[in-house]
């Protein structure tokens, strides 16, 4: 084990809101520097949601995607739902009434969306794992599955099902012509399409489901009728939605209402400080930084935020974050080839928790 390096930070106590990729990266660095901190998340375990879709089709896989926060951060972790941030008194208020004081605040609330791509609930590790095991059973029962949304998550979901259960009928409905995420090279997006077609996935592109609100999601039914805006009808047993990802701003929206971008992310300066609040940092999806939303970038944000908390205390120049200095190269394979190899997908474009 490597030795820890202590930083004399006096009365500093950092609260990290959100235990996704950015939040745990910040907490781990604070822990390594012996800087007092509290990590808060509504779940009691970190969810490696890049592997969530594999966990939706393979029984026993979900337990590999959750890691207890307490096992790593011990007494520095609090499970709870943040309901308010009191900037005047510098406290984070939890739903159960507990108030967590902070000298510095790191907001890492990530993004939210529908299950199974996201699991954003107040829940224990056991409950979360069981939710995915139940999802596996729904997929197993279904002869026909419709996946709504053809971003990287939808592509991966369709490929995971067709790889695990090649005999099932899988239809992917996407409102755009190109699949996967727009940050990817056109050739990669085309390759994703070709692999899905090779696997036998039926593609309905440039069509939008117009009766989605009336459909049961993630639950087997003997017959579900899906309608699109182009008049197409698809009879299926199971509907899985893989779109609608949005910034998770519920914890901070009221406190920072005048500092929000149009999508709910927090406007930050080059040091990742929230506008007008030098002791508050935003990292990951909830930071309004013009770059692909990836776990890798969230980790880079965490390093800058922690460094600047130390630098400010030591009266040293702050470290700027430069999105242009880190260029994403997609892995040398299509996004759904991870499914073919029955591995955790490596493609990490799209919002992360």
Integer average pLDDT: 89
Q: Biggest β-sheet, characterized?
A: 6 strands, mixed
Radius of gyration using CA atoms only: 21 Å
Question: Roughly how many Å apart are the termini?
Answer: 28 Å
Count the beta strands.
19
Q: Characterize the overall form.
A: elongated
Individual helix count? 8
**Biggest β-sheet: strands ordered side by side in the sheet:** 5-2-1-9-19-18
- Given helix and strand content, the structural type is alpha/beta
Helix content: 10-25%
Low-confidence stretches: 1-5, 325-353
Provide the β-strand percentage band. 15-25%
Order of helix and strand elements from N to C terminus: EHEEHEHEEEEEEHEHEHEEEEEEEHH
What does this structure look like?
It is elongated and about 65 Å long. The protein is built from eight helices and 19 strands. Strands 5-2-1-9-19-18 form a six-stranded mixed β-sheet. Helix 1 packs parallel to helix 7 and helix 5 runs parallel beside helix 6. 25% of the residues lie in helices and 21% in strands. Helix 6 links the parallel strand 12 and strand 13. With 353 residues, the protein is an alpha/beta fold.
Layout of secondary structure:
Elements: E1 14-17, H1 21-32, E2 37-41, E3 45-47, H2 52-55, E4 66-68, H3 69-73, E5 77-79, E6 82-86, E7 91-94, E8 99-101, E9 104-107, E10 111-112, H4 125-141, E11 144-148, H5 152-164, E12 169-174, H6 186-199, E13 202-205, E14 224-227, E15 233-236, E16 238-241, E17 246-247, E18 273-274, E19 277-282, H7 295-313, H8 337-340
Parallel strand pairs: 1-2, 1-9, 2-5, 9-19, 11-12, 11-16, 12-13
Antiparallel strand pairs: 3-4, 6-7, 7-8, 10-17, 14-15, 18-19
Helix pairs in contact: 1-7, 5-6
């Amino acid at each position: 084990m490597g030795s820890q390096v202590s930083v004399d930070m006096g009365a500093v106590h950092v609260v990290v809101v959100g235990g996704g990729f950015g939040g745990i990266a910040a907490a781990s660095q604070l822990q390594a520097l012996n800087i007092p901190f509290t990590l808060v998340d509504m779940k009691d375990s970190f969810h490696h949601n890049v592997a969530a879709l594999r966990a939706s089709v393979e029984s026993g896989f979900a337990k590999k995607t959750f890691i207890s926060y307490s096992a790593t951060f011990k007494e520095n972790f609090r499970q709870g739902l943040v309901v308010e941030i009191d900037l005047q008194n510098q406290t984070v208020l939890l739903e159960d009434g507990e108030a967590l004081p902070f000298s510095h605040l790191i907001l890492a609330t990530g993004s939210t969306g529908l299950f199974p791509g996201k699991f954003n609930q107040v829940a224990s590790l056991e409950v979360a794992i069981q939710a995915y095991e139940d999802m596996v059973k729904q997929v197993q029962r279904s002869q026909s599955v419709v996946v709504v949304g053809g971003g990287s998550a939808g592509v991966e979901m369709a490929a995971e099902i067709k790889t695990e259960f090649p005999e099932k009928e899988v239809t992917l409905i996407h409102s755009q012509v190109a699949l996967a995420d727009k940050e990817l090279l056109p050739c990669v997006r085309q390759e994703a399409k070709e692999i899905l077609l090779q696997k036998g996935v039926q593609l309905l592109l440039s069509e939008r489901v117009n009766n989605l609100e009336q459909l049961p999601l993630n639950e087997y039914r003997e017959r579900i009728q899906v309608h699109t805006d182009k008049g197409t009808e698809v009879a299926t047993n199971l509907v899985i939605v893989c779109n609608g990802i949005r910034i998770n701003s519920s914890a901070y929206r009221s406190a920072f209402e005048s500092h929000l971008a149009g999508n709910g992310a927090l406007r930050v300066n080059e040091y990742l400080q929230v506008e007008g609040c030098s002791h508050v940092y935003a990292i990951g999806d909830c930071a309004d930084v013009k770059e692909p939303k990836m776990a890798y970038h969230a980790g880079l944000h965490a390093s800058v935020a922690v460094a600047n908390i130390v630098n400010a205390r030591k009266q040293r120049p702050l470290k700027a974050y430069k999105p242009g200095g880190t260029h994403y190269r997609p892995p040398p394979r299509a996004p759904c080839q991870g499914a073919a190899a029955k591995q955790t997908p490596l493609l990490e474009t799209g919002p992360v928790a």
